[in-house]
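pinned: reference chain
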Amino acid sequence: MKKSRSPRVLLVDDEPSVLEALSVLFERNGFEVTATGTGDEAVGWLEENGPIDLVVTDLRLPGRDGIAVLKQARSQDPLAKVILITAQGDEDFAMQACNEGAFRYLRKPYKNQELILNARQAIEMHALEERNVKLSRENQALARRAGSEAEVEPVGQSIAFQRVLEIATQVAPAESTVLLMGESGTGKELFARYIHDHSSRGKGPFVPINCGALPESLLESELFGHVKGSFTGAIRDKEGLFTVAAGGTLFLDEIADTSPAIQVKLLRVLQEREIIPVGATEAVPVDVRILAATNKDLEKEVEREEFRQDLFYRLNVIPITIPPLRGRPEDIPDLLDHVLTRAGFPDSLPGGNRSQDKIFTKRSWEALCAYDWPGNVRELENVVERLLVLAGWSGGDQPGRTIDLPDLPEKIREKPEQPLVSDSPVPTPTMETIEQAYIQWVLAKTEGNKARAAEILGIDPSTLYRKIDRYGIQIAS
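pinned: its structure tokens
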């Protein structure tokens, strides 16, 4: 039987006595040790020798610091685990390191037992992730050969949409936490499923939960589980969704709506990769990737102290903002076709006619494509489904009637009011002139309501504030 190799660790500390003590500690606990005294030496060793299982480094080092060592290690192996040793007052620096992918950070003075325990957890996580990646690649290869791979594919050909899809494709194979942002109805869960399907966890479960749909006590039990007798009605042990999603992805939708108590517990999961079920006394390790979503500006929520700053940093490792539908109108025809296909209508009918030409008149189709869809893709899907039902296309052997302009909701039939650039427009207006005029017009229409104006403009409120200051826009009181 082949003997497994000892886990390899790179130790980095500029104090010789500390480095020697760490070397002895790790060797006694079965690690193969390499010791370096500076960040430059550590980076040079990694460049020459390649990936390593674990790095334990002081955060403050002469020359290149611990974050530089972290980046080098993870650039060679995205699964590499790095534990950082920090001094008092280095919390902000340490949080930056966590955003760069650090496995954990320990404050001085730490106990040897604590350090070794964290190191072993890191090695176990590294080995587990390597196995998952290997198995997932094998499964995906088999599925492709069998022609049975079914993935969720977001729909859109616009530059803005394709840019977001490219980012999602790039980050999918990593284990990093992703924060999906965008208005309600833009398809944040669809993108979360896409990231899951294209990740090493794609064959594992995808478990979504809307954090704003449940009261705090029920949400806590749903996420973390509970033990029998922990509260009235807890007649048996219950697994939480973090456990149910083991080996896969947990999607936390509307994360901004969680209470401070739940936020503390989520922070612990992200930091320690373990949960404590309601009523339990012992922590349970979890193996799950976390994707989160919100339609709120979390930075503003942090400023208002409605959302924990440290949790925001943990979630905001890879932020992705999904553009609203009014920001990519060229995608509307493709989305309408997609909805018809999902409803069971083929792309074309006998004789070469497109199915949409049979179901919709030209003017009704053009009106649907011209509407700005403030409710985004969700509103589009609901409207088309209602039109199909009312026109008799939802069932039976007989085809329904053609949907014409009068069948559409009034708000879609009406042409949107066109904003005036100015009373006396300049002969060749610049984009800044047009933008300023449009912002002024939207603010006038919303009676100075900046939050509503930002929503209509499709930008964050913070961006709107900056533009108001930049253009010196006066808001009538």
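why pinned: The CA atoms of residues 163 and 198 lie 17 Å apart. The chain is about 45% helix and 10% strand.
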